[in-house]
Design goal:
Two copies of one chain form a homodimer.
Chain A: E1 3-8, H1 16-31, E2 35-40, H2 46-57, H3 63-87, E3 92-95, E4 102-104, E5 113-116, H4 119-126, E6 130-134, E7 137-139, E8 145-147, H5 152-163, E9 168-173, E10 194-196, H6 197-205, H7 213-222, E11 226-230, E12 238-241, E13 254-258, E14 262-270, H8 275-285, E15 290-295, E16 302-309, H9 314-323, E17 332-336, E18 339-345, H10 355-365, E19 372-376, E20 379-385, H11 389-399
Parallel strand pairs in A: 1-2, 1-9, 2-6, 3-6, 9-11, 10-12
Antiparallel strand pairs in A: 4-5, 7-8, 11-12, 13-18, 14-16, 14-17, 15-16, 18-20, 19-20
Helix pairs in contact in A: 1-3, 2-3, 5-7, 6-7, 10-11
């Protein structure tokens, strides 16, 4: 007998038929003698529909009231899923976040879990119930209802698994697991059997959106074994854990890319001490998230900087920079869109010299110029023009020995939290 | 400055525009210096939609899970209404039933309020908030979410008014107030300025569905002053209280009718002691609600009974009676539909002899035969054929001096809870 946490995203319970399939899946575990706690997101488009409704009444609703509104989405899901499980003859008990013991801080809209008191869940287990917990939500010590923000249901599942000391936390999604790259682009992408927390974090942040980075961090911190698998097949999925076995001779685990990139360059900056701090301090104060930062060499006392931001932050970034002309002297600000950041990720990289060099070689070999580069211990990222990204990903996938003969990707609509 | 409870039904907040109108109305009271607690039902068809969704997954869902599901309807309403109030520059705080301190017993689907702890509401008042409370719901001492059943939001409002010692509890609905009869039938129906709790109870039970009987009982028991008024006009409405002033010479306050009536007759019953107890004991055990019961005189040791039930209980009632043939000897069971129960209601009746006689006279004068009669201190009801009910109601309305020159009825869709 194992203690298992299963998490189902919004698209996995988006229709009556899918809800029934999920109920059957839970009942199978229960029949096999496992104790099961399930975390569910709001069904399909429920959250977006509620947001639309609220905007009609108030374009800037108080965050507290928004939490009051949005938490109903998950409450509906848990009640309906519980009913579906009863229908096939099993005992299930739905619980809101606060009923399940989730305590959070009071930052409405993006609260953090401060404590979980799982007594009620254990009591339900003793009474033979499968427990269905509303994801994405909790309560403050003052009895205020909060939400954990985007990706919150993944975090709920991992935190619950840690709190009840579950053997495994299974994240059910619309793909078979974590892939070496986007299988829609590379037909011979391989499903990974294992991946480390750190590699998963790099891939999650880089756009392979099967698992929310915050949940991965929480899992790493609490050493929760995660499995990412499909709610539409019985396939094994991908195991996410501390030490993941690398296949012989494979330094790179996966290849990610992210099209939400804009480049800003500040040209002819007078090279006085503190210039970088002034520029990026102003950007931080303007709440612009900067990703890659590159400074060229100094020529005649002047330097060029480049940095990347998300597309939605581009205009704000430019106006922030123009706004500090009084403090920093420079010639010109330029910007560029239609870019993509492509990254190779792998814990084996650090012990394999030449991994980065091979990446530059492959990209150059396609006649594509690299605009910016950034590296970490387990990642190399290059910013290039967006137009030939699929060729680049395919070539890198082959070059790093990741291609497999057949591919087992089963697609479906994206889970959103 | 007054302390006011305002209750809005589902149709009063059924659209964005109506929600905004309600918000404006609340803000007006707030600006006038009143402290306001608002109770809201689920918007429009939300509850029915949720029930439909649940039936697809489980035709007989556990009552606990149904409560978990349905309480989201009111939670959505309170959050949205609060946002609408903020939008026009006022402070509002939405509260679920449990947050507002509503404790109930554990009878899911039709829980009764056991206690209200309004500390949080008073605290919100001190901070300058208007409080928006989810109707129809509460929590058990074990932290289980419950619903109060149909009519629950009226009861929530009245109970809240009692708990916070409000000066008045205003029930906003889609009509101007309580009318002397259905203004859709009688053009010159009069809006009543005042009505007693007992009269309101008789009218409420008899189909003038502006106010739930349970809420009226609760108001009577706790001496809460109720006002029924329209959410679409600024008209005064009807005040419901212990002693309502009768206009000079008017013994009857109103005329109600109910088409949900079926007559069952048991003919040729052998007149032995205990027969009535056997028949109506069996009906009660079969959960058939019996309204009027009439026994004719005994002839040759045999008697005839008639009783009325709601249309939906007719077939069950017949089969219950057939099922006790072994215990009770009778010739035949007959039944009749297409009936209506018309009632005159008025606290002045008891001191005005001849009120009932006039009713029989009016009905007979139209050439209509009366099938069953039942009376209480403040009510006389006659069951007649349904086809000419509108003629009967108009004639009675005139005969009891209730007609007014002009009528101010403003119609709208019915509020359901």
């Amino acid at each position: 007998m194992s203690l298992i946490v299963m998490k189902f995203g919004g698209s996995s319970v988006g229709t009556t038929e899918r809800m029934q399939r999920v109920a059957r899946r839970i009942a199978d575990y229960h029949e096999a003698g496992h104790q099961v706690a399930v975390v569910v997101s709001a069904m399909g488009d429920t959250t977006d529909d509620l947001i639309d409704q609220s905007k009609q009444l108030n374009p800037n609703p108080p965050a507290r009231e928004m939490d009051m509104l949005l938490t109903t989405g998950e409450q509906i899901s848990v009640a309906l899923l519980s009913m579906a499980i009863h229908q096939i003859g099993h005992k299930a008990m739905s619980l809101t976040g606060w009923q399940a013991g989730f305590r959070t801080d009071a930052v409405h809209g993006k609260a953090r879990i401060t404590d979980i008191a799982p007594e009620r869940i254990f009591k339900a287990f003793e009474q033979g119930y499968t427990v269905i917990v509303a994801g994405f939500q909790g309560m403050t010590d003052d009895g205020e209802i909060t939400t954990l923000g985007r990706g919150g249901s993944d975090t709920t599942a991992v935190a619950l698994a840690a709190a009840i000391n579950a053997d495994v936390c299974e994240i059910y999604t619309d793909v078979d697991g974590v892939y070496s790259t986007d299988p829609r682009v590379v037909k011979c992408a391989r499903k990974l059997n294992e991946i480390s927390y750190d590699e998963m974090l790099e891939l999650a942040n880089l756009g392979a959106a099967v698992l929310h980075p915050r949940a991965v961090e929480y899992a790493k911190h609490n050493n929760v074994r995660l499995v990412v698998r499909s709610s539409f097949t019985q396939n094994e999925g991908t195991s996410v854990k501390e030490e993941a076995v690398m296949e012989q001779g494979v330094a790179v685990r996966g290849i990610a890319y992210d099209k939400d990139v804009a480049r800003i360059s500040i040209l002819g900056v007078e090279d006085v001490p503190g210039v970088l701090a002034t520029v990026f301090g102003a950007l931080a104060a303007g709440e612009v998230n900067v990703d890659i930062i590159v400074q060229s060499g100094v020529l005649n006392g002047k330097a060029d900087f480049s940095f990347t931001v998300s597309l939605s932050d581009k205009d704000k970034a430019i106006s922030v920079v123009e706004g500090i002309r009084g403090e920093v002297s420079f010639d010109e600000v330029t910007s560029e869109e239609d870019l993509v950041k492509v990254s190779i990720v792998g814990a084996g990289m650090v012990s394999n010299p030449g991994v980065a060099a091979k990446m530059f070689e492959v990209i150059s070999g396609l006649g594509i110029s690299i605009k910016l580069v950034s590296t970490s211990e387990i990642r190399v990222s290059c910013v290039i023009a967006a137009d030939r990204i699929h060729d680049v990903v395919r070539a890198l996938h082959t070059a790093y020995g990741l291609d497999v003969e057949e591919q087992a990707f089963i697609g479906g609509p994206k889970d959103r939290r």
